[in-house]
Amino acid sequence: MGIANEDAIKKFETLMEGVDESLKKTFQNMHQGYPTDTYMRFLRARDWNVEKAQKMLVDSLNWRVQNDIDNILTKPIVPAELYRKVRDTQLVGLSGYSKEGMPVIAVGVGHSTYDKASVHYYVQSHIQMNEYRDRVVMPMASQKCGRLISSCIKVLDMTGLKLSALNQIKLLTVITTIDDLNYPEKTDTYYIVNAPYIFSACWKVVRPLLQERTRKKIQVLQGCGRDELLKIMDYACLPHFCKREGSGSSRHSRNGMNDNCFSFDHPFHQELYNYVREQAAPTAPLKQQGSFHVAFPEPDPDDAKIAKTIESEFHRLEDQKDQNGLVRSLSKQISDLDIKIN
User: Fold this and answer.
1) What fold does the segment set 3-66 form as a domain?
2) For residue 325, what pLDDT band results from cuts at 50, 70 and 90?
3) Looking at the predicted structure, is the pLDDT value of residue 302 above 60?
4) Hey, where are the domains in the chain?
5) 228-276 pLDDT tens trace
6) Confidence of residue 135 (pLDDT cuts 50, 70, 90)
7) How confident is the model at residue 304, as a pLDDT?
8) Do 161 and 188 form a contact (C-beta atoms < 8 A)?
9) 66 vs 133, 175, 253, 260, 297, CA distance in Å?
10) Interior/surface letters 171-180, b for 16+ CB within 10 angstroms, e for the rest
11) Which residues are in the CRAL-TRIO domain (predicted)?
12) Is 271 within 8 Å of 263 (Cβ atoms)?
């Protein structure tokens, strides 16, 4: 770490000494014993501008206090059948760990439909996975490796991505904004696999809009990405959709349900769900409850521009698809007419 960076962290620490006691308490839950690492994450997210990083952190701490995020792991989504529906339509899971000890988070972008529960349940579930990752998974990984593990690897499966995904952009923007503003620099690398044409078309227009720091984190792999991913993780830790070319779907596994890290029956989700139920037990009896509402933060202007660009590109591709379909239909009608005339 350079002298300039050390000075920035010291200045950051001094500024944080003056914040309200309630914010200091939630900050302890956030940094899990590693405040310097948290300062560095927020500094990197604001290009080492101390004042901007401090404002970002204070805003995040206020968001945590106002939305009771420290207690979100005591709020189970019940009944279990509702949570199963969330898991079936919000495809996220932990498939294992990299050779360096980082959690490998798999995300089924293409097949996630977000259509079996309210938006608040999906946001609640997402934040619970973030908090469980930061409070349970990473501390255990750090203990096992004998060093701090504070970031993860994400493998994004684009299998099944369609133009209908346009309907999900608003929800995905909410989730991305929550991550960007409150869990910055928690992902070391994003690996994109099974990318169809629609992703490639959008990537061409979105990539130039991303910050250089973000672009460096994103790697688009060929096919299912198995060979490249095996350089950084063992075969057993590969997400199920990366274990063989042409496996087809994020939803299903050919090697049994427990191999599908998206499934509610996967050990990771069983452990997470049981953990939340156990945390809730001392505070109140389990019963049917409404979703845990969290205030949705306003997206960063740059993020809003990216979302708008993706939406515009989807509309363009949809129009192109409709035009191609019309051309094919007219061609067929002309062909049929020609046959009848002859």
Assistant:
1) Helicase, Ruva Protein; domain 3 (1.10.8)
2) very low
3) yes
4) 3-66, 74-280
5) 999 999 999 999 999 975 545 455 444 444 689 999 999 999 999 999 9
6) very high
7) 65
8) no
9) 21, 18, 40, 36, 12
10) bbbbbbbbeb
11) 79-239
12) no
Contacts 24+ apart (CB under 8 A), 130-133: 130/179, 130/183, 130/186, 131/69, 131/72, 131/73, 132/73, 132/272, 132/275, 132/276, 133/94, 133/103, 133/105, 133/186
Distance of alpha carbon 90 from alpha carbon 298, whole angstroms = 22
State the pTM of this model.
0.85
CATH superfamily of the domain spanning 74-280:
CRAL-TRIO lipid binding domain (3.40.525.10)
CA 331 – CA 325 distance, rounded (Å): 10
Are 127 and 178 spatial neighbours (Cβ–Cβ below 8 Å)? yes
What digits encode the pLDDT tens for the residues 179-199? 999 999 999 999 999 998 888
| Coil/strand/helix, residue 192 | strand
Q: What mean pLDDT value characterizes the chain?
A: 85
Task: Give the whole-angstrom CA distance, residue 103 versus residue 270.
Answer: 17
- Rg of the chain over CA atoms, in angstroms? 22
Burial bucket for residue 204 (CB in 10 Å: 0-12, 13-18, 19+): exposed
User: Helices then strands (H, E): number in the chain?
Assistant: 13, 5
CA-CA distance, 306 to 7, in Å (whole number)?
34
For the chain, the distance separating the N- and C-terminal CA atoms, rounded to the nearest angstrom, is: 81
What backbone torsions phi and psi does residue 149 show, to the nearest 5 degrees? -115, 110
Above 80 in pLDDT, residue 29?
yes
Q: What residue type is assigned to position 182 of the chain?
A: N
| Over residues 286-312, mean pLDDT | 69
CB 96 within 8 A of CB 145: no
Of the chain, the percentage scoring pLDDT greater than 90 comes to 65
What's the CA angle centered on 215, arms 209 and 216, to 5 degrees? 160
How far apart are alpha carbons 268 and 274 in whole angstroms?
10
Strand ranges in 137-294 using DSSP code E only, listed in sequence order: 152-157, 187-193, 218-220
